[in-house]
Amino acid sequence: MSVADDLYREIILDHYRNPRYKGELPPPALKVEGANPLCGDELVMYLEVKDNHLADLRIKTQGCSISCASTSMMAEAVKGKELTEIDKIIEQFKEMMLQKNGAPESAEELGDLEALQGVKKYPVRIKCALLPWNTLIEALKAVRSHKPAEKVIME
Amino acid sequence: MLDVAKIRKDFPILHQEINGKPLVYFDSASTAQKPKVVIDALVDYYSSYNSNIHRGIHSLSEKATEAYENVRNIVASFINAPQPETIVFTHNTTEAINCVAYGWGRKFLKAGDEILLTEVEHHSNMIPWQILSQEKGVVLRWVPITENHTLDLKKLDDLLTSRTKLVAVTQMSNVLGTINPLKQIVQKAHAVGARVIVDGAQGVPHAGIDVQEIDCDFLAFPSHKTLGPTGAGVLYGKMELLEAMDPFMTGGSMILEVWKERATWNKVPHKFEAGTPDIGEVIAFGEAVKYLQNLGMNNVRQHEKKMTAYALERLSEVDDLIIYGPKDPELQGGIISFNFKEIHPHDVGTILDQEGIAIRAGHHCAQPLMRVLGVQGTARASFYVYNEKSEVDKLVDALYKVKEIFQSVGS
After folding, report:
1. Given Cys at both, which of A69, B76, B199, B287 links B170, Cβ 3.0 to 4.6 Å?
2. Which CATH number fits domain A3-153: 1.10.10.10, 3.10.20.600, 2.30.38.10, 3.90.1010.10?
3. pTM, full prediction
4. pLDDT reading at B409 higher than 70
């Protein structure tokens, strides 16, 4: 397998070139920031939660193809979903990314996101893929606790 | 002229494959590879005379002390320091700069005094001065770079006043490769009564330095970028300054006499070497310096000029590649930063790594400079004595591969 087959797959580069749900939402949308200081990746996520659903979200992002694609694909996967459903997607995605050999069966349910599995062969880049997800986790925590969200710093 | 084929035989690490491709090591600005004489010196120290120094009751300690102290002579001759006692061993360049910030700056600078920095400084020649500024009310001023990515000497003239007490400047930018005209800068600084500390982390290993000719007041540089091991660095200072300033770290070895409530300091340079140093690493560093001296620093610089000229020529053939720096081998060392317009440097780094090519990608510990350049980071290739032109060709081929992968979208 070449780097183009497992890391830079067409679907990933498509999301990198044409990020979905890019932008900002006005207040009172919840605003959460995330950063990966070692590589300089940064994102700001805006969420609108209504009736336990993620009614809308927008994300401003600056980073490599992997972090941008992961952000865009995540936005597509969670927009409009019920929060508990989003919890499940997050769990499945992180399980897929952190499982050392192969992927759990549940990865098939992830649709396009499954394409990010190839990142696992490049351990230094896993953090790039996880940045938007960790930021989303922090955002949901803030929604549920009604406390302000803290900036997510990947270590 | 360097015999690169012969030199490459001295570096065991170069003879391996990375991801199925022969290693092309273009990351010497991060850390240089080590010749076998350096590795052997480390092994020899730890396997035959490892012992603590300056406590010479037994034979091993005597041998280790002599070997360690002899490196002061070697380094002094390498940078043409007036006497070996002006060579202080630290653990790295950063510690050497902190030594001056805390030992000299904190003692002699006061609120309203100014320190001139340049926009291209590495964080290590920036943060210690920021701390001092916050602590003492010292004002930091920044010398900008020109469009050509060289230091703006006119602005330097404007900023130098009687308030300027220190100029902290790098010999060679670790991002742009720009070599600063140190002699001229020192003359201008001295004319207003300011001291000069030179960050030689990139410059000394690749171009050497003559501290008496340049007349700088302090110089900091590392072993590990100079073909030596990690864990050793050098602070050179003029004797009267080293004598006047305070020690940075305190504890064992740096004392003369200790009572319960007070102590007196050892002589320079021992006043600055608290605790057990990295003895074996310093000894092996001495071998690294001798290795470079045998090659001749002028030959090293000439080789890198040729490498840089060739790389600039080949890289300029690649469409959509932005090259930073003066783009002139006379004005820059063996460091070239570049970016594709629409591709993040980490993606470039990952794809090059798959081709066996090691480069650095990111902000290079120079975030203020990244803002000046208007980028998040750059990809950086850097050369040393063991690199050859054919490796530049491999880099260019791999860059075409990067383009191909990223252009495949939508096609």
Report:
1. B199
2. 3.90.1010.10
3. 0.94
4. no
